[in-house]
Amino acid sequence: MVSRSPSFPERDRVLDLCLALVSLAGVLVPPSHRRDWCEEWSGEIYYRWLRLRKFDRLNLKECTDPTLRSFGAIPHALWMWREDWSVDMLIQDLGTRFEPT
């Protein structure tokens, strides 16, 4: 869900945590919107991170901003889920996620 391509330069653990939260929340987003949703949220978090890095403000206090922003993905994902999902769709999607490979 979250791009791990070479276009993303080195990241540290806090940024990885932020992107993991977005990816985890993305499970709730309906499949038809999930990719765009995850890319949008990841892009917002990564942009903020780059701005902090550009101005050499990657300290503990400033790192809380992208972290708190990434937690905002959870209520947004829940809203998307409520607006677009049915119980049958949820069961089907969860079933395909946990199938043995």
Low-confidence stretches: 1-10
Quickly count the helices.
Answer: 5
Mean of the pLDDT scores? 79
Summarize the helix and strand pattern as letters: HHHHH
Give the overall form.
elongated
The assembly state of the depicted protein chains is: single chain
Number-wise, the strands total: 0
Number of domains: 1
Task: Please report which band the strand proportion falls in: under 5%, 5-15%, 15-25%, 25-35%, 35-45% or over 45%.
Answer: under 5%
For the biggest sheet, the summary is: none
Cα-based radius of gyration, to the nearest Å:
15 Å
Report the span from N to C terminus: 19 Å
Helical content stands at over 70%
Question: What class do helices, strands and sheet pairing give?
Answer: mainly alpha
Q: What's the short version?
A:
With 101 residues, the chain is an all-alpha fold. It has five helices and no strands.
Would you write up a description of this structure?
With 101 residues, the chain is mainly α. It has one domain. Helices cover 72% and strands 0% of the residues. It is built from five helices and no strands. Helix 1 runs parallel beside helix 4 and helix 2 runs antiparallel to helix 3. The N terminus is likely disordered.
Tags for this model:
101 residues, mainly alpha, disordered N terminus
